[in-house]
Amino acid sequence: MSQDLLFEIDDLHVSIGEKEIVKGVKLAVKAGERHAIMGPNGSGKSTLVNAIMGHPSYTITSGRVLLKGEDITRLETNEKACRGLFLAFQYPVSVPGVTVANFLRSAVKARFGEARPGKGFRQELKKKFEELEIEESFATRYLNDGFSGGEKKRLEILQMAMLEPAVALLDETDSGLDIDALRVVSEGVNRSVGKEVGLLMVTHYQRILNYVKPDFVHVFMDGRIVRSDGFELAHELEARGYDWLEKEALAGKA
Domains, the chain, ranges and CATH? Predict the structure, then answer.
């Protein structure tokens, strides 16, 4: 891995049972870069990021994932998170019995090795609530329990802000958001992803990319990246769809 690379996916293959879903993906992210993965339903985009994070439903059969030069492919999910890898879920789960504040305090302690001072933690959490337009009363509610889709997504970005990851993976964070929620969530992403952080976003649509502008757009089809380009590729996909790329990919196999 080159010294200037922060995150690298090296010829990754992922299967569900006997079926291969991700078929040899290579992708490199430098600090401060924003990458977007777009593609039709069922192409393997979400499988890629969930497998990288260590979801038990997916098996990495070959290839490597490197974070700051370290091979983290076979680490447990909590170990990856403690090293600075973060995944915002497409469908965040509810955890009845665990309050938002207690969950975040435990996560921050695990990430940074020791709990931050109580007053400092509360002040920081209050600030993040304000930025993401979340009522402070949510701190005492059970994690995602009874939350709307937009509230869950805002809380995912709040978690990202508190955990200060080295690399953030966002799995269709824009799905189910109305215009106002999309703006607030996007602003939260932009605040959290600075010059030292790498970002990899999975999305179907261009709309979030108008707020969180990527440096690179990669088109995913049949478990592979078939085209990579700058932000202008997202506009082309919005205008033309994916059919033309599918035809190109088929022609290339002929």
Answer: 5-253 (3.40.50.300)
Burial class from Cβ neighbours inside 10 Å (0-12, 13-18, 19+) for residue 60 reads middle
Element (H, E) at 210: none
Closest CA to 212 of 184, 232, 187: 187
Taking the C-alpha atoms of residue 205 and residue 172, their distance in angstroms, rounded to an integer, is 9
Cα separation, 215 vs 199, whole angstroms: 10
Closest C-alpha among 71, 51, 68, 69 to residue 60: 51
pLDDT tens digits, one per residue of 187-226: 999 999 988 999 999 998 888 999 999 999 999 999 999 9
More confident call, 119 vs 49: 49
Alpha carbons 234 and 35: distance in angstroms, whole number: 11
pLDDT at 1 over 50: no
Could you tell me the pTM of the whole model?
Answer: 0.91
Q: How many CB atoms lie within 10 A of CB 166?
A: 16
- Considering Cα of 222, then 226, then 230, then 235, what sign does the dihedral take? negative
User: Tokens 């998170």 map to which residue?
Assistant: 81
Quote the CA–CA distance of 187 and 181 in Å, as a whole number: 10
